[in-house]
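Predict structure. Input: Tetratricopeptide repeat protein, 579 residues.
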Amino acid sequence: MSIPGGLERARHLALASEETTAKELLLSFMPQIEAANRDDWMLEALAQLGELYLVRTAYDGVREGARRIRECLTTYASILAGGATPDVVGKSTMTPVEMRHVIRRYGRRAGFLETGLAAAMGDHEGAAVALSALDDDDVEFADLAEEHTYLLTYARIVCAEALCDDDLHVRSVALWDSVVQHILASSESGESADNLRVLGGIGYARFCIETGRLEQAAPWLRRVEARAEARGWELATARAQLERGAASWSAGDRVGTEARMYEAYPVIARYARANDVSRCWLFFGLTRMSAGGLKVADECWENAERHWRELGKPFHIHRILLQRSWIAIFRGRYAEAVDMVTQARACLDSSPRSSWLAYARLDDHLGNVWRAEALADLGFDGAGEPDEDWEAAEARYQAGSGAIRAQLGTEQHRAAMEKLKRAAELKVPASLAVDSVRYSVADAEARAQWAACVSAPLLAGAFAVASDWENSDLVSQLIEYHSARGTFKSEQADATAAAWSSVSTAAAPITDVDELALIAAGPPIADDTGLTRLGPLPPLRMDPTTGPVLDHYRALALERYGQCVTAAESVWETWETAF
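Output follows.
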C-alpha cells in the first residue's frame, strides 16, 4: 500500500470508529514517511492521530500532535520570513506557494486539535478563543474551503457537546444553531459530510432530550440511525439507539428504555467508549431500580461510577454518587448515604463548572436522607434495616405501604422530629431558591416547563417534609407562598431574557445565565412583545402578629445560593381587615 493510500485508508477507518486499527496503520507508516522526507505526509499523519486521540480521550497524545504540527509549521514560516538558517532552507523542497498551502491547511488542523482539547478539559473560554481563531476568512487556497468548513463544524460539535457535558446547555445554543444550519444546508455526499451529519445529529438530539424537547430529537435520531446503517457504522448506530433509550426514559417508557439499551450496549462496550458505556450503566440501573431490583441497580451504578472516575469527570461522579445513595437510603444505611453526599459535594467543589443550582439539589438530597432516617424512627414500614441482606431489602422496598407506627411522645417520635427539622433546614431553602427562577423566565411555555420539571419536585419535597414534621404553620406558609405565585409588571419584556429562556435547560436569574445547569424548556411562543411580565413576589405576611412568611428559609436561600426569593418591596398583607 502506498503512503497516500495508507493515509486515506486510516481516515476511512477513523470515520467508521475503528480508531485502534487506524492508529496502528498510521504508526506503521511513520518510518516510511520519515525516510521519504515528506513533511506534508507527516503532518497529515500527526493530524489524523490527534483526532483519534481526541475521540478516545488520550489528551496527552492530542497535545503532542498539535505541538509537533505547530513546530513544523513554525520552521516553514521562518523560511518564508527569511529568518531560517541556510541549512534549514537547503533541506526544504517546497516552493513558497506550497509552504503557504501547508501552513494554512495544517495550521487549521492543529487549531481544531487545540479547540477540541480545551473543550474536553473543561476550558470552555479557551475553546471559544481557539474556535474563533479557526473561523478565519482566508480564501487564498480555494481547494481548502471544504476541509475548512468540515473542521469548523466538527469543532463546533465538540465544543457544544463539552458544554452540555458540564450542564452549560444555554451556552451551547448558538453552536448547535450553526451546526444544524450547516447540516440542513449541506449537499455533500462523501464520508466526511456524513460523519458530520451523524455526529451533529446525535449531539443535537441529546441536547434536545436533555432540554425536554423529545419530539425534536426523534427525527434527528431516525435520520442518524438510517445514515449510519447505510454506511455500516456500527458504533454510530448504537449511539443513536442509546439516545433513543434516553428519550424513552424521559418519556416514562421503562420497557422501551431497556430494549434500546440492551440493543446498544454490546456494540458500545466492544468499542470501549467509556462515557457512553457509563451512560448505558446509568440507565440500566434506573430501569432495574424502578422494577425493585436494588442490588442489580447498585451494581450498574457502581460500574458507571468506575468509568466516570477513569475519565476524571467530577460533575458526572457527583451525580452518580447521589444516585447510588438512594440504594443506601432504601437499605436503611443512612450514614453511608450521607458519606456519598459528602463525596458528591467534594466533587462539586473540585469542578470549575459547578453552579448554585447543583449545590441546591445536593442540599435537597441531603434533606432526603435526614427525612428517610426520621421516617424510619417513626416506624415507616418501607424503611430498610442495615443488617438485612439484598433479598430482604428488596422485598421490603417492594411491599412498603407507607404506614407509620410510632406513637406521639415517645423517644423515637422526638428523635424523628429533630431529624425532620434538619431536613426542612436543607430542603425548604433549596426549593425556594430553585423556584425563584420562574420570575426571570420571560417565555410562558418555558416558565411552565421550568416550574413543572425542575422546581416542582423540590417544592413537593418541601411540602412533604413540613407535613411529616407536623409543622402546620410551615405548611400554611408554603401554601401561601405557592398560591401567590408572582406579580405582573407593566414593562416591555426583556429581549435578552426572551432569547435565552426559550431554549435553556436549567434557569437561574439572567445575571447567572452562563452558570446554569439543566432546565426543561419548550419552544418559544409566537408573541414575546407583551407589555406585562411575571415578577417576583414582595414579602408576604399572613398574620398581623408575625413576620413575613418563610422569612428564615428565604434568608437561608440567599445566604447559601445567592438567590433572593422575594422582591425588595413593601410587605404584602394577605389577611382581610374587618370593618
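Confidence is low (pLDDT under 50) at residues 491-531.
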